[in-house]
Specification:
Length: about 675
């Protein structure tokens, strides 16, 4: 037990929901940190260390790595005659499938003589819950028993079955040691294999019941663009899940390993980013969240009528005081989020615009009405006209926007704001949601649209009067209002989410765009969460100086929507540069360092992959194009001229209005849409 959250940045991850496999870059799974094989929210294998003739092979690297599979290659020097060249190579081909992880072990020899080897695999069965792993808690070794040739272990509803054909086995040190005695012919091969099947019958989420659409095809002058999109699509495929109650509806789990389940905000934002790629993902996410929409009032769960949930787990989540959220205890279904409800409304609107069938939209109109009512009747607890939050339990989330760590909302001197907190970006989300809801009400013959437009106009007027601050660089928007209704004057990325919502005037948008692109916020790779002049700034602080991929991508989309396409192109280019630093898998977050500082560093416990970080690849690709859906059966329109930070490119396999299409952009920025 370390009591420290494990680092992830130097580990290999393979996943196919609800399974994950985390190992060292050499393929070994050691009894340390987050390494292991997981099903849903439980680790079932905590060790899988392989030796040949009593020695660990010497790692060469990882090849053929994709979302669910990789080959770990190593040299064996503990068998056969000594040679200067590595003539005996071991390859571990690991694949993660729904409910299973399997590994083929291949010894490939170029030695001139027959070689006898003993492969041993030490396997540790460990049924630690994810919350315990995340907090560096003690391991929970579990005894396996041999039945019908398989080693079986269980803890409650979680079961695991390990098979190693052809191996002898004996129990050792709380685990199992498998041994294969093999003979490799001259210039030949020898093979072994093992697998683990696992299930959690009480998990509320499971593997997606619907296959993903065919991947996009990207051709670009800059080859990094295709590499980014390819990697993102592989990662997102591994995050696809369904609820056990609605197997035909699909959503994206928030991220691996910590948030491998349904999160309202995360799943909604990712689905919205992916609308032109996978419209069914948006529809499934909307329906799954609508089925769990708040109906009553419960202070413990933060449920309120019409409210969209924050997260769904199989049991209570317990995290220690050393976590980002201080001492945390959340119920299995938790509603502690101030932004998921307006985001749900706007996703329903946008999904309709991009071609969600009218019958499917109509089926959610009662949920729309309840969500709109929550904005008016519940989200503004003190009646001041703004949406705000306050945890009253003492063990829920202290902050309930996307920056939900306990220390994220800061004044410019670094001091923490006191709640209730009314976040700036949430007012923009609510403004947009009210107008989006009004358009849906009109389109489907429902009353109340004029009232919601009036409500939005009143919110915009009050917002304009209360949120503006000024410093030596000029005006900017506060991150929030605090308990005393004073602006929390930290200069932060939050203001960027207001771009494109309509709550800002053209002049105000220009002021916000200029501040976001100032070197104190724009690192060259993305927009920092907090500017470098803040007393709480640190480039590796979770929400106070780092760069979050989705945050910068949403700001990129907002800049483009507000007409600041040159600035949007700079952010897109910066994110692509960052992606190259991380093997084209954009992480949840990375450091706020500049190119002059040596470039971005990994945030060591960041989720990889993460839904909205993976989905950001589509925003980077498409945001500056100005794509506008035109209704069912009609292709979208595109801006007449667009920035070309990547040079000429083409993307095919997109969807709008029920039709598949492609976009071609030439080197001068001329874009064209055509049917496929």
């Amino acid at each position: 037990m370390t009591g420290r959250q494990p680092f992830l940045h130097d580990l290999n991850v393979l996943l196919a929901a609800p399974m994950q496999a985390w190992s060292g870059r050499d393929g070994q799974i050691r009894r340390q940190g987050a390494e292991g094989i997981y099903v849903a929210d439980t680790r079932v294998v905590g060790e899988a260390v392989l030796t040949v003739n009593g020695e660990e092979p010497e790692a060469l690297g990882v090849s053929r790595e994709s979302g669910p599979g990789a080959s770990f290659e190593a040299v064996v020097r503990s068998a056969g005659e000594s040679h200067a060249d590595p003539l005996l190579v071991l390859v571990r081909r690991r694949t993660v499938q729904t409910g299973r992880v399997l590994e083929d072990i291949v010894l490939d020899s170029k030695l001139p003589k027959e070689v006898a080897v003993s492969i041993e695999l030490t396997l540790g069965i460990d049924f630690s819950p994810m919350a315990s792993v995340k907090s560096g808690g003690p391991r929970l070794p579990t005894t396996a028993v041999l039945e019908d040739g398989c080693w079986l272990a269980s803890s409650g509803a979680v079961t695991a079955s390990v098979s190693a054909p052809g191996a002898t086995a004996q129990k050792c040190d709380g685990g199992i040691r498998f041994r294969w005695d093999l003979t490799i012919p001259p210039g030949g091969q020898a093979r072994a294999a093992w697998s683990v099947d696992a299930a959690d019958t009480l998990s509320p989420v499971t593997a997606a019941g619907v296959t993903a659409p065919p991947p996009l095809t990207v051709s670009a002058r800059d080859p990094r663009l295709a590499a980014l999109v390819t990697r993102a699509q592989q990662d997102l495929a591994g995050l696809r899940m369904s609820s056990t109650e609605q197997p035909s509806d699909v959503f994206l789990a928030a991220g691996a390993p910590w948030f491998f389940t349904l999160f309202g905000r995360d799943s909604l934002i990712a689905a919205r980013m992916l609308l032109p790629v996978d419209p069914q993902l948006a529809a499934g996410t909307l329906r799954i969240l609508a089925a769990r929409q708040g109906a009553g009032c419960d202070l413990e769960t933060a449920e309120q009528p019409g409210k969209i949930l924050h997260e769904l787990r199989r049991g209570e989540l317990l995290l220690p005081a050393t976590s980002h959220n201080d001492q945390l205890r959340l119920p299995p279904v938790y509603y502690g989020t101030v932004d998921a409800t307006p985001l749900w409304i706007s996703l329903l609107h946008d999904a309709w615009k991009w071609g969600m069938p009218e019958g499917e939209v109509r089926a959610l109109l009662d949920n729309l009405g309840a969500a709109l009512a929550w904005l008016r009747d519940w989200a503004d607890a003190d009646g001041d006209g703004f949406l705000e939050y306050l945890d009253t339990t003492g063990h829920g989330l202290a902050n309930q926007g996307w920056k939900d760590s306990a220390d994220s909302i800061r004044c410019q001197d670094g001091s923490l704001a006191r709640g209730p907190i009314a976040l700036a970006e949430v007012q923009g989300y609510a403004y947009r949601a009210a107008l989006d809801g009004a358009e849906l009400l009109d389109a489907f013959g429902q009353p109340g649209a004029a009232d919601w437009r009036s409500w939005a106009a009143a919110l915009a007027r009050k917002f304009r009067a209360e949120y503006w601050c000024r410093d030596g660089l000029g005006p900017y928007l506060a991150i929030a209002l605090d308990a005393d209704k004073r602006p929390v004057d930290g200069v932060a990325s939050n203001m960027g989410h207001l771009l494109g919502t309509g709550i800002l005037s053209e002049d105000e948008s220009a002021v916000v765009a200029a501040r976001l692109m100032h070197p104190s916020l724009f690192s060259g790779f993305g927009i920092r969460t907090l500017d470098t002049g803040n007393g709480g700034y640190w480039p590796l602080r979770y929400h106070c100086g780092s760069v979050w991929t989705h945050d910068s991508a949403l700001i990129l989309a907002g800049l483009a929507a507000a007409g600041h396409v040159a600035e949007a192109a700079l952010v897109a280019s910066g994110l692509l540069d960052a992606a190259e630093s991380f093997g084209f898998r954009l992480p949840e977050l990375f450091s706020g360092h500049t190119p002059g500082d040596g470039g971005p560093l990994p945030y060591p416990s960041s989720c990889r992959p993460q839904a909205w970080a993976g989905a950001a690849a589509v925003t980077i690709l498409l945001a500056t194009l100005g794509l506008e859906p035109q209704g069912h059966g009609v292709l979208p329109v595109v801006a007449a001229a667009v920035p070309t930070p990547f040079g000429a490119f083409s993307v095919s396999g997109l969807w709008a209005g029920g039709r598949q299409f492609k976009v071609d952009v030439d080197g001068e920025g001329n874009a064209a849409v055509s049917a496929m």
